[in-house]
């Protein structure tokens, strides 16, 4: 497979310079490197600027409602765990209205890859404070400065039981591509939080700002949870790379009913539903 094999007829409508372009490029390159088959892959999105990827990637796709990416992913995995399920959404979608699902999906260790496009603002609704906006950040919804501390997705993922936790940057496409490949190859819940500049509404967290703040995790042991917690807490400089990785059984592994073959391949022709339907009618 080549990255262009995943192109569709739809043209992205993001603002010129939006970080989503870099993320889309990295995703397609990662899919090609991982040799993901179109009919064996599904991209799940929610609502927001970052939630139109299924329209631009030629695989199966599902557009869920706001914050409900992970329940849809869970349903897909339980119905057909042969599918590679990739969730792509924004920080508002995943760390705001979808926060409860985010925590429980990590706790259950579903075998899905979750890419969060973290631009630290609500871009689709034209520039309000998001869960990851910095304290003091001035937006339409916080004209006197945000008084809330931001959510720390990496620390939250560590506390909630995610088995693969990484962070990338939309301006470092080859590096982000490799992180996504690692997440796709990992068996278990993979979080890839991606710093993504919003060039239209977030004039603080710009490409230049990130280039000055970011550094790559090169001498870090991803098996060391305590070290990962320490790295997740850094604020003066912001690390990108793989924070943590461990191997353990997935949620799907624990379900005996799908241990032999996917649910969708099982014969249900002998199941009688008449009595149940009559009871519910």
How does this model look, in words?
With 281 residues, this protein is α/β, with parallel strands linked by helices. It has helices at residues 20-33, 53-56, 69-79, 91-97, 99-108, 153-160, 173-185, 207-213, 225-232, 274-280; strands at residues 41-45, 60-63, 84-90, 113-118, 164-169, 190-195, 214-216, 238-245. It has a single domain (3-280), classed as Thiamin diphosphate (ThDP)-binding fold, Pyr/PP domains (Rossmann fold), CATH 3.40.50.970. It has an 8-stranded mixed β-sheet, sandwiched between helices. Strand 1 (41-45), helix 2 (53-56) and strand 2 (60-63) form a beta-alpha-beta unit. Helix 1 (20-33) crosses helix 7 (173-185) and helix 4 (91-97) packs across helix 5. The longest helix has 14 residues, at 20-33.
CATH architectural name: 3-Layer(aba) Sandwich
User: Helix/strand/pairing class, anyone?
Assistant: alpha/beta
Low-confidence sequence ranges? none
Helix content: 25-40%
CATH topology: Rossmann fold
Q: How would you summarize what this structure contains?
A:
With 281 residues, this protein is of the alpha/beta class.
Task: Summarize the topology.
Blueprint: H1 20-33, E1 41-45, H2 53-56, E2 60-63, H3 69-79, E3 84-90, H4 91-97, H5 99-108, E4 113-118, H6 153-160, E5 164-169, H7 173-185, E6 190-195, H8 207-213, E7 214-216, H9 225-232, E8 238-245, H10 274-280
Parallel strand pairs: 1-2, 1-3, 3-4, 4-6, 5-6, 7-8
Antiparallel strand pairs: 5-8
Helix pairs in contact: 1-7, 4-5
């Amino acid at each position: 497979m080549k990255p262009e094999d995943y192109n569709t007829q739809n043209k992205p409508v993001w603002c010129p310079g939006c970080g989503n372009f870099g993320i889309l490029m990295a995703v397609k390159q990662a899919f090609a490197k991982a040799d993901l088959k179109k009919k064996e892959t599904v991209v799940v999105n929610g609502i927001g600027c970052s939630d139109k990827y299924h329209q631009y990637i030629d695989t199966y796709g599902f557009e869920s409602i706001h914050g409900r990416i992970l329940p849809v992913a869970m349903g897909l995995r339980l119905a057909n765990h042969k599918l590679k399920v990739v969730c792509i959404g924004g920080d508002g979608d995943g760390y705001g209205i979808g926060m409860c699902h985010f925590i429980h999906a990590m706790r259950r260790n579903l075998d899905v890859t979750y890419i969060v496009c973290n631009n630290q603002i609500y871009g689709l609704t034209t520039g309000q404070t998001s869960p990851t906006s910095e304290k003091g950040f001035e937006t339409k919804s916080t004209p006197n400065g945000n008084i809330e501390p931001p959510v720390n997705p990496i620390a939250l993922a560590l506390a909630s039981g995610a088995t693969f936790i990484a962070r990338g940057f939309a301006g470092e496409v080859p590096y982000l591509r490799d992180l996504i490949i690692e997440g796709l190859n990992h068996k278990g819940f993979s979080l890839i939080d991606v710093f993504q500049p919003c060039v239209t509404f977030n004039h603080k967290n710009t490409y230049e700002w990130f280039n000055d703040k970011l550094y790559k995790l090169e001498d870090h042991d991803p098996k060391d949870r305590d070290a990962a917690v320490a790295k997740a807490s850094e604020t003066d400089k912001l690390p990108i790379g793989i924070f943590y990785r461990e191997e353990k059984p997935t949620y799907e592994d624990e379900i005996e009913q799908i241990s032999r073959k996917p649910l969708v391949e099982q014969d249900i022709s002998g199941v009688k539903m008449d009595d149940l339907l009559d009871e519910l009618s």
